[in-house]
Amino acid sequence: MEIIPRYRFDALVADALDDLPDELLPVLDNVVVQVRDRNPDEQHLLGLYEGVPHTERNGTDGPDVVTIYRAALCEMCRDFDELVDEVYVTVIHEVAHAAGIDDERLHELGWG
């Protein structure tokens, strides 16, 4: 599908954040979520978590950053409905990493 306008994509990310499972909501207190078109190093990367997982924090760590990549997500989807689903999966996946949940556990939970 073609790349949707930034304001529409931002709304999808906001909706995904609003729909996060209750277990992940406390993590958002120390996470900045941003949208970028692409990762400069990995053009097809959908999302990226950067920071110290909450399970490993020592109290002096700065905020974590979750980046969601608009162009990569739009290009991998066939239609808008699939994009909505993929944005949600990507947001939950990256926020879960901030919570200290690894990929294996994400798949067990159905979040990855």
Describe it.
The longest helix has 19 residues, at 80-98. This protein is of the alpha+beta class and 112 residues long. It has one domain (6-109): Zincin-like. Helix 1 (6-18) crosses helix 3. It has helices at 6-18, 70-76, 80-98, 103-109, and strands at 31-36, 47-50, 64-69. It is globular and about 45 Å long. 41% of the residues lie in helices and 14% in strands. Strands 1-3-2 form a three-stranded mixed sheet. The protein starts with 5 loop residues before the first helix and ends with a helix. The chain is built from four helices and three strands.
Helix content estimate: 40-55%
Shape: globular
Number of strands: 3
Q: CATH fold name, please?
A: Zincin-like
Terminal CA distance = 22 Å
Strand numbers in spatial order across the main sheet: 1-3-2
Chain-averaged pLDDT: 92
Instruction: Quickly count the domains.
Output: 1
Number of helices: 4
Structural Rg: 14 Å
Q: Structural class, from secondary structure content?
A: alpha+beta
Question: How much strand?
Answer: 5-15%
CATH class placement = Alpha Beta
List low-pLDDT spans: none
Biggest β-sheet: count, sense, barrel? 3 strands, mixed
**Can you write the helix and strand succession as a string?**
HEEEHHH
From the 3D coordinates, which CATH architecture would you assign?
Answer: 2-Layer Sandwich
